[in-house]
Amino acid sequence: MSKLPVFTYQTRLRLTHEQTSCLDAYTALYGRAQRTLFARMRAGVSINELKRSFLRRFGLTARQFNAIRVELEGKIASIRERRPELIEEAKWRIRKAEEAVGRLEKKHPGSNVVHQKKRRLAVLRAKLEALLADQESGRVRLCFGSRRLFRKQFALEENGYASHADWKKDWQAERSSQCFVLGSKDETSGNQSCQAAVAPDGSLRLRLRLPDGLGSTSKHLVLEGVRFAYGQDAILRALSASRIVTGTTKTGMLARKREGSAVSYRFVRDRKGWRVFASVEAQPVLLRTSHLAGAIGIDMNEDHLAVAETDRFGNLVEIRRIGLHLLYGKSEEQAKAAIGDACRQIARACAESGKPLVIERLDLRKRRAELEAVDCVRARSLSSFAYAKTIAMLKAASFRAGVEVVEINPAYTSVIGAVNHARRHGIGSHQGAAYAIARRGLGLSERPSVREAVVPTRNGGHLTFALPARNRAKHVWSFWADVRKRLKAAHAAHARSGGNRLPPAPLLPKARALGATRTLPAKPRHANRRQHCSADVLDDLPW
User: Fold this and answer.
1) Of 531, 539, 470, whose CA–CA distance to 505 is shortest?
2) Hey, CA dihedral for 289, 294, 300, 303, is it positive or negative?
C-alpha cells in the first residue's frame, strides 16, 4: 500500500437547471441506498448477497455500489477506531471535572457554578457509560444528516423554523446532499464512473455515469468548463499517468492492463449550489532538508506558533513568532486560511534553510480534557485552536516543499525551554520550548545548564527557585519531572501573592552581573556566541 498522502481539491460548478435536477436525483438515490445498506449490514446480511439485490433494487452499476460500500465501511471503521480514544478522553475529562468540582466546593460552596459543574460531570459520566456499552456490544451509531440538525426539531423557533415541515424539508435535503464516485488506478482516466478529459481551452470535461434507477434518457451527465483554482496541475498529471502495460501471466500468456493514478470525485450541494471535490494521490517529492544543516522546532499555542531555528550543533540561530490573530470567533474557513498561511510560511523557511521541521507528537485527548478544569475564557481559546488540523496542515505543506517532518515526544519541552533557554538567550518561554523541541529532534543533550532557575512570567517579571539535585543514575527526564513540580509550585505562589497583577520586579544585582542576554528579533551575527550587555543595563529587561 502506498504511503504517499492523498490531496483533495475543490471547485464550484456552473450548472443549468437540468443538470442541477439530475444531480439532485442522483444524490437522493445515493443517500437512500446508503442508509438502506447500513441497516442491512447491521442486520448481518452478507455483502455479496446485498450487492446482487441492490443492483436490481436501486438500478446501480457494480462500481456505484462499491463506492457506496467503501464510503460506508470507511465511516464504520473510523467510528470503531475512534471509540477507544473517546473512552480515554471521557475518563480524562471526568477526572479533571471531579478535581474542578472539589476546588469549587471549597471556594464557593452551594453556588450556581458548582451546580453547573456537577451537571456537566453527570453528562460526562452518562456519555462514558454509553461509549462503554457500545464498545462491549460492538454497536455503531450513524446519523445521516448530522446530529446537530436532528436536534433542531426539538427547538424549532429557536432555530428559525416556522413548522416541523420546514425542518423536515432541510433534513431530507441534508441527508441527500452528496455522492461519492470511487476511482481506481486500473481504470481509464483513473475513474470508470466519472471520466475527465482535457478540453482545448485547458478546462476539464467531466462525464458522470448515472444510475439506471433514475430512469433518465441519457446514461451520462456531461459537465463542461470545470476548472480548479488550486490543484489543476496535480489533477492533470494524474490523468496523464494512465497507460497500457503489457505483461505475462503465470501460465506465460500475454496480458494487457491499465496502470495509472486513481482519481476519486465527490459532488456536494451547499447553500450556494454544487461543488466537486477531486482526490488524487500526491507525486513523490525530492527531499530538500538534512539534519546536518540543523533543525527548526515548532511550539504550538492557541494564539501563535513559536519557531526556533538551530544550526547543526544545536546553537540558536533565529526565533520568530507567527501570530494566529485569535481564532476564536472566526469561521471554520477563516481559521483554516490563517493556519494554512502560517504552515506554508514555516515550510518555506525550512526548505530555504535546508533544515527539517521538528514538531511534538501531541496527545490531543489530554488537550481536550484540559477544557474541564479551566475558566470559560481559557476554554474558548483552547477549543477554537485546532491542534489536529494544524499538525495535518504542517505535514501537508512540508510534503509539498520537500521538507522532512520529525515527530518527538513532547515530555518536559516547556520546562526545559523555560529553565534552560529562556533567560540564557533572552527569549520567551514559548520560544524556549520551540528551541528545546528543535534540539531534541537533533538528539542533543538536555542536561540542566543552570543551578538556579530564573523563569519569565506573563507580566514581564520572573520567578526564581533552586533546582533539585540530579541523580545521574536515572534518566534526565526524572530530573525535569522534579523541576516541573517546583515550577508549578512557584507559579502558584506567585499568583497567590498577586505578583501577576503587579509591575515586574527588577533583577537582583547579583543576577544582573551574570550577564543579560539580548532578545533575538532577527538572526544574530555570531550564532555560536552569546551576546552580553553590561551589568548596569535596565532593570526591566523583557524576560
Assistant:
1) 539
2) negative
| pLDDT per position as a tens digit, 378-421 | 565 556 567 888 899 999 999 999 999 999 999 999 999 999 99
| Cell triple for 25 | 436525483
Rg, the chain, Cα only = 29
Asked whether the CA dihedral 405, 340, 382, 298 is positive or negative, the reply is positive
Contact 265, 181 (CB under 8 A): yes
Encode 31-42: b = buried (16+ Cβ within 10 Å), e = exposed.
Answer: bebbbbbbebbe
Residue of higher predicted confidence among 535 and 63 = 63
Residues of the chain with pLDDT > 90, as a percent, come to: 59
DSSP assignment letter at 251: T
Map 480-510 to HEC letters: HHHHHHHHHHHHHHHHHCCHHHCCCCCCCHH
Instruction: Please state the rounded mean pLDDT for residues 293-307.
Output: 92
What letter represents residue 358's amino acid?
V
Secondary structure letter of residue 74 according to DSSP: H
Give residue 525's pLDDT.
38
Number of H helices, E strands in the chain: 16, 16
79 by Cβ neighbours in 10 Å (0-12 / 13-18 / 19+) ranks as middle
Q: Is the pLDDT of residue 131 over 90?
A: yes
Predicted pLDDT at 380: 58
Residue 199 pLDDT > 70, yes or no?
A: yes
Would the CA dihedral through 75, 80, 81, 85 be positive or negative? Answer: positive
Q: How far is CA 505 from CA 371, 453, 502, in A?
A: 32, 16, 8
* Cβ burial, residue 76 (10 Å; 0-12/13-18/19+): middle
Give Cα 53 distance to the centre of its chain: 40
**Residue 301: CB partners within 8 Å, gap ≥ 6?**
385, 430
> Which one, of 428, 400, 391, 389, lies nearest residue 521 by Cα?
428
Whether the CB-CB separation of 418 and 487 falls below 8 Å is answered with yes
